[in-house]
Amino acid sequence: MFIVDTWPQALALVAGAILIGISKAGFGGGPGMLVPPLLALFIEDARIAVGLLLPLLLATDVFALRFYWGRWDKRNVVPILGGAVIGIVAGTVLLDELDPDQLRKAIGLLAIVLGGTQLLRNRLVPASKVMRPIPWLGVAAGIICGIGSTLAHQGGVPVTLYLLPQQLDAGTFVGTTTAIFFFVNGAKLAPYIARDMIPKEALFTDLCLLPVVYLGTLLGVRLNKVVPREWFLRVILWFVLAAGFKLLLG
């Protein structure tokens, strides 16, 4: 009935659901970046580890979209989604080419590259310079987002790096990223189902994990009040790097 059959796997799933909830409570994508490599460490079939997460992510996207409906920036959404379509197609082709062990290594590599990029974000994105939307750059960010998201749900960093220099207000920024990932995650559903990456046991497991995601959101709200945000995210990102190296090096 459940997709996992050992306590370490179950604990990894609960921890992943909590991290997804925390990421939806104002901590951005940092905590969520740890979830795919964490599950890939404990679930032998990396395809199932990736597929298991998609219904949870879609559920949280739908919930978030209710609060930010219409608050997205079309100048950014359109080019990024255009690129994301290309990236999702490319990522799907790669899914067909990679065996489970190679996919685990790909998840590890993405965790290292994107986690490291997120750690260096302040150096990569000048805080003082305001950038206007550049369509071709948005398409490029979308392509990278689509590939990373299809392989390992790791599409947030390129989108964030593209949007941050524009210094959008908080509501528009969250609304824009929510709309983008609602579409991206929804577009991945058919390829995942066609490749048996979301078996019925995974859906039942996800249903049981939804309350845990909600508890993670409440925990995230609390942590936001008592823990320095940047400090917390840095700790999470170092765990992302550690998990990435573990997957890559075996």
The SSE order reads HHHHHHHHHHHH
Unreliable parts? none
**What is the rounded Rg?**
17 Å
Described by the principal axes of the CA atoms, the overall outline is globular
Could you explain how this protein is built, in words?
The structure is a single chain. The protein is mainly α. The chain has one domain. It is 81% helix and 0% strand. It has 12 helices and no strands. α5 packs parallel to α10.
Summary keywords:
globular, 250 residues, 0% strand, single chain
Please specify the SSE layout and strand pairing:
Layout: H1 7-27, H2 30-33, H3 35-42, H4 46-67, H5 74-97, H6 100-119, H7 121-124, H8 135-152, H9 156-163, H10 170-194, H11 200-226, H12 229-249
Helix pairs in contact: 1-3, 1-4, 1-11, 3-6, 3-12, 4-10, 4-11, 5-8, 5-10, 6-12, 8-9
Summarize the structure.
With 250 residues, the chain is mainly alpha-helical. It is 81% helix and 0% strand. The radius of gyration is 17 Å and the shape is globular.
